[in-house]
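Readers of this paper often ask what the protein records in our data store actually look like. Such a record has a labelled line for the sequence and another for the backbone structure tokens. Nothing more is needed to write down the fold, since each code stands for a local backbone conformation. The record that follows is passed on verbatim for readers who wish to inspect the format.
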Amino acid sequence: MKKQTMTRKDNLDFTLKRRLRFRINGKIRAGELVIGNLRKVTTRAKADAWACSWSLSETDPKPRDIYGEDALSALVNCLVFVNSYVQNEAETGIEIWWIEKGDNAGLKWAFVEDGKGATSDN
């Protein structure tokens, strides 16, 4: 019987896109949130980490990286960051929504529930 060896994958090739609406200076336009390019990186301090890229076409179109200790933490940190970013944009008068105004690009539910962290009934 041939022995199987596991190889560690240092890049997870996927892209998540969500069509959004933006109200900037009173004008509504369509745009997109893009999250992906999850990959293993070495930090300036020579530590191993994972990076996840994000961009918002109408406010921050250049892909930017958010980091985590592993692939899942990089992805979760990225979602948390984008959620916060969209909230901060709202405070400056730029609205960003997915299905209905105020839904925070569809990310609000995942991180805040009546002022508390998201919970599960399981």
